[in-house]
Amino acid sequence: MPDFPPSTQELFETFDDLQEWDERYDFIIDLGRELPTMPSEFQSQDYIVEGCMSTVWMKADAADKDSVMTILADSDSIIVKGLIVLLLSFYHGKTAGEIAQSDVSDYLKKLGLNQHLSPQRRNGLFSMIKRLKTVAASI
Questions:
Q1: pLDDT digits 0-9 by tens, 82-132
Q2: Crossing angle of helices 8-17/21-34, nearest 10°?
Q3: Torsion of CA 128, 89, 103, 133, to 10 degrees
Q4: pTM to 2 decimals?
Q5: HSE on the CB side for 94, CA within 13 Å?
Q6: Which residues make Cβ contacts (< 8 Å) with residue 4, sequence separation at least 6?
């Protein structure tokens, strides 16, 4: 993938091209393989996202609410890594203030994730979103 993360428009187009959900899951797994490995110093208890069945580490930071937020994340599950990429695409280039106020529900609905993720994965995805919004709101 030349540009990381892919744009939300690229993701919408790819999801539209893939007719079956098995193909979409394979694509999400491929996205997960593109996720850069998080530095090991951040793969610690301090950065674990609570509420995920898989282990997910997330570090987010910005200088102030008007600064673009830097997000590092990783997981021990390849499909969860793909879900992280989908979130990184949505939040890419947004300030902490924008992330704190953002509503990701239309994006997830357009991708079809609200219907096709297991309840456990959906809970984990919303735990990651909650963590990002909480950190963004605290800046």
A1: 999 999 999 999 999 999 999 999 999 999 998 899 999 999 999 999 999
A2: 140
A3: 40
A4: 0.96
A5: 23
A6: 34, 36
pLDDT greater than 70 at residue 29:
yes
| Active centre residues (catalytic) | 52
Burial of 73 (0-12, 13-18, 19+ CB in 10 A): buried
**63 vs 126: CA distance, rounded Å:** 25
Tally DSSP H helices, then E strands, for the chain. Answer: 7, 2
Q: Which domains does the chain have, with CATH numbers?
A: 8-138 (3.90.1010.10)
Q: Quick one: tokens of 7?
A: 């744009």
pLDDT higher than threshold 80 for residue 2? no
1 — pLDDT class (breaks 50, 70, 90): very low
